[in-house]
Amino acid sequence: MSIVLEQSESCSVLRLEGAIDIAAAAELKQMLLKALEPAVQAASNEVCLSLEGATDLDVTAVQLLYAARCRAKASGVEWLIDADVPEQLLCALNETGLQQYLVPVDDR
User: Fold this and answer.
1) How far apart are CA 95 and CA 106, in angstroms?
2) Which among 32, 51, 87, 108 has most CB atoms closer than 10 A?
3) Distance separating alpha carbons of residues 108 and 91, to the nearest angstrom
4) pLDDT in tens, 18-54
5) CA distance linking residue 7 with residue 76, whole number of Å
6) Cα separation of 101 and 99, whole Å?
7) If you write DSSP's letter for every residue of 25-73 in order, what string do you get?
8) 2-107: CATH topology
9) pTM score, whole prediction
């Protein structure tokens, strides 16, 4: 499990790798809040989530991602998910409505 945050003036990219489960919940929540913080302060910012290296998202992880998306929306922050998502994760994204935020890397 790995959660890496890369920030620039225009974008925060959060990369999730491996199995993201209840054991990673506290770290995931902290990193999501860190990613959103500068985005909320600068109207042009966006948060992009990369799940390319993720192998599993449990219900806790999905709930945290959904809550972060809601917070981004309420703050006027653009929330994107890199469309290069492993097949096994698409079901969880579809069930929560997060699939609508999938964006091909070339379209960002």
Assistant:
1) 25
2) 51
3) 23
4) 999 999 999 999 999 999 987 666 655 789 999 999 9
5) 18
6) 5
7) HHHHHHHHHHHHHHHHHSTT-EEEEEEEEEEEE-HHHHHHHHHHHHHHH
8) Transcription Regulator spoIIAA (3.30.750)
9) 0.88
